[in-house]
Amino acid sequence: MGYQEYLAAREFVTTIGQPIITYTLIVSAVLFLLSVYCLVKRDEQVIEYSTTLLKVNTTLLALGFLVFAWFHFKIYSTIEVVYPDYVAAYVFQTSGIQLTSSRFAIPLWIEAEKMYFWALCLSFFAWQIAWKYRDVATTVLPVVNIMLSFLIGISYFYANPFADPLPVVHSEITGWTQAITSQDPQFIGQMSMQVFGRVTYYYNSMYMWTHPPMLFIAYASLAVTFAACLFMLLRKEVIYDRIAYSHAKIGYLFLTLGMLIGYPWAVIAWEGDWWWDPKINGSIMMWVLYSAYLHTRIYLNRKYMWEATAILGIVCFASLVFTYLLTYVVPGIHSVAQT
Amino acid sequence: MGIQSLNLKNYDYYLILATSAVLFAIGLVCVLGVWYSYGVFTMNPDWQGTVQYPTYINLMNMHVYPFVLVLLLALGLCIPKRIVPRTSLIKVTACILVFTLVISIAYSIEAGIAFILLMSIAVQAVVLVLTLIKSGALTFDREGHMIQVGSSLLHLGTVLFIFDFASMWESTYHIPVFWVVTLLLTMGLLISFYPSTISRVLNPTK
Q: Which of these three, A160, A184, A204, is where a domain ends?
């Protein structure tokens, strides 16, 4: 019964979500064009239009996010995994966990949803810039808007969370349901153990609810730092440093805390050697570079330090993109790439 | 430049430049690590589960080690500047380096590192207490009590972090100490980045 309700919810997400993300893509495409125009020419009317489009875009992204949230709640409320006694006894014997049943409390930033979540965070930062710094309406803001359009494009064409909502979760729920229907004790036992591992150490883990969103908020904030650093190189105006630094502070805070929280999780979840895994390498590289940026910025008024800080801010963002892509390109324990 | 005329601003500036350069160098070693991993993974997809992986970890440690050591020295030099009078700073710094060197030669590099770390933790803990009680005995490059508290927390968190990884790696207290480090660093960052906001929250009547 619960499974049928879950399937209906999944279908509803696609029916509602697909138009939302399609409208978001259209708005983003127009926003992209207007932003390019704003970079070339200062036109108050165009600035007004692009600000309005940004607000529409953010609202649409937030609406899509609410649809996710509803879907995740439906998964939680409709699917309950009741473990057979022999599985519960085995788990208690091996890990000391008292087990009767589990529900999927799935975070809102897994599978294809993470790119969408990053876009949503960046959209909020872009809105904040539009509201707080009118002076950069033809400089930093259009660059941030272009990055936002780019993220939404990737989300639509390569990681559309509405086209096939949570395919991995879906296969796990379907597998569990099939096992129960089959009444085959071996199949049920096998699926129970699989679901137990995923639910306990991944979906419902406190770390999964905190580590990734902190990093995505950091990435979004640091994207703004990048845009401001670009203009620090072109124009020696304090406003660009102020924007770069204020967003670097938010980004660095979340980046540091997010990375720190990831460490105990890795110790618990990953057995064997995992230090200097490509993704770990990339993350350390990104963190040390942002630390260097914050250090050089302290002496911004010294000779060549303005330029050095701006270049470092740009290099830092390149390292961020590089680190993000590592998950998809270089194999490893923190990766989805295949050799 | 004579010891008497030592300018704390310049001392701090060059320390920051050195720290940034070392951080950048660590970043480059990490890029090399990624590059190396990619190459090996292409030839052997199961590389991470093989006995060759620990060899790679040792190789990376060997390459990062000198830079972490320099970073540690920079921290070791940065921390006493708060508590030691400007005129004695170079002398104290030289003493710390000589002691670290002597211990490293007489016992081991690990013992030398443990010495400089424990000394830094002790000094930084004293600095934190003195900062919290608003002692006039401290020298800070930047004004503002909250910024000084934030800076003290950050420095204490950083040395404790390195100590936790360098000397407590296999201890049962490794993860509990790690959570203390996380708390210190988070509080340090929050207070350093948003001193006036935190101050307003703590003293709403002022």
A: A204
